[in-house]
Design a protein that fits this description.
By secondary structure, this protein is an alpha+beta fold. The strands form two sheets. It has a five-stranded mixed β-sheet with strand order 2-3-4-5-6. A two-stranded antiparallel sheet has the order 1-7. The protein is elongated, with a radius of gyration of 25 Å.
Length: 185
């Protein structure tokens, strides 16, 4: 994936410009951002990354607040729906590979570089804010009735009641069940 210079510059933090102490920055993550990634499950987004940065002589301590909305495909029916993301992450960018920040996510960076490129982190953080199971609440999106019926769900997306008397069972299973009952299991 070849990133053009403008894109890289747009999602970079100018480390040289930062003096020691606390700073804030922000990045807009939108459709154009995700167009640079072929394998992204996100194509439409309006997300803001708010950064709380503290610069020390040996490292940068960066808190990321990722918030906004992405459009996802429902796992049940495939229709798009809006999903709200609101997550916080923290990375320590160390200029000294010998420094130990036990218990924290640490990335070692070259202190000779003037810019810290955050493209991969922003991409990853948005994807980490997406649930594994993408089925929205009823208030956000409701799948087509035909799809729900095929999946054994009511029109509200709840599981249908299944009565045992209506289900046909294989007589071999009945024989095993009887044997189990006789053995006291």
């Amino acid at each position: 994936m070849d990133k053009d210079r403008k894109f890289v510059r747009e999602y970079s933090l100018n480390v040289v410009r930062l003096g020691l102490g606390k700073h804030q920055d922000s990045f807009e993550i939108n459709d154009a951002f995700f167009a640079h990634f072929e394998q992204s499950m996100v194509r439409e987004a309006k997300v803001e990354a708010l950064l709380d940065i503290e610069k020390f002589s040996t490292h940068l301590d960066v808190g990321f607040h990722i918030k906004g909305e992405v459009r996802l495909a429902c796992d049940r029916c495939g229709s798009p729906y809006p999903h709200t993301v609101d997550q916080r992450f923290r990375i320590i960018y160390s200029f000294d590979p010998d420094m130990d920040f036990e218990g924290y996510e640490v990335m070692h960076v070259n202190n000779q570089e003037s810019h810290l490129v955050l493209i991969q982190e922003l991409y990853d953080f948005v994807h980490l804010a997406i649930p594994m199971r993408k089925v929205p609440p009823k208030e956000v999106h409701l799948c087509a009735a035909e799809v729900l019926k095929m999946l054994g769900l009511t029109e509200d997306g709840d599981p249908m009641e299944q009565k045992e008397s209506q289900q046909e069972t294989d007589p071999r299973w009945d024989a095993l069940k009887n044997l189990k009952d006789k053995m006291g299991g």
